[in-house]
Design a protein that fits this description.
This protein has eight helices and five strands. By secondary structure, the chain is of the alpha+beta class.
């Protein structure tokens, strides 16, 4: 038994090319899988490329059901329809840099920590919910609460550096419970 196996039980983590090949062999496109899992394409790509990804991602990605052509077509159509609906609902972005998430991050929007250096607030991969939005001097900031009970205000630059939007929303009453 090597030193690596004495610290980590189970099979070694899969490489990003291996996971991409598994997805393709099962009929999954990254964009459709991200939609199906309820995460952004950016976040899914980050997970796949992260050699230190959490083990539950290994299991989820390697145990995906095989899609038939009908399944693929139906999923792609559903994703395109949902994307089209979101684009109609999304207001045009304001010209002020501090307002770039205006109309995108709203109370109830689910975000995920996408940086390992987020500090003591939350761990990478942990989801949070926008609780409130405030605007001061043409700059919005977003109060994000995490499952751990921690919450803080994030300016747009902080959102860019630490968080990723998932495109999902939850009712705030459900988010608080």
């Amino acid at each position: 038994m090597t030193a690596q196996h004495s610290r980590h039980y189970g099979p070694p983590r899969r490489s990003a090319p291996y996971l991409r090949a598994q997805l393709a062999a099962s009929g999954w496109k990254m964009v459709d899988l991200a939609y199906w899992l309820g995460v952004s394409r950016q976040y899914l790509a980050t997970v796949i490329n992260d050699e230190q990804r959490a083990r539950h991602w290994e299991l989820a990605l390697c145990a995906l059901p095989r899609l038939t052509r009908q399944d693929m077509a139906a999923l792609a159509a559903q994703r395109r329809s949902a994307s089209h609906d979101r684009q109609r609902e999304r207001p045009p972005p304001p010209s002020a840099p501090g307002m770039r998430y205006h109309g995108i991050l709203l109370p109830g929007s689910v975000v995920v920590v996408a940086a390992s250096h987020a500090g003591e607030l939350a761990d990478e991969g942990e989801e949070g919910v926008v609780q409130a939005v405030r605007c001061r001097a043409m700059t919005e900031s977003y109060l994000v609460a995490f499952a751990s009970g921690a919450a803080d205000w994030f300016a747009p630059d902080d959102v860019d550096a630490l968080l990723a939007e998932t495109g999902r929303t939850v009712p705030l009453a459900a988010a608080a419970s």
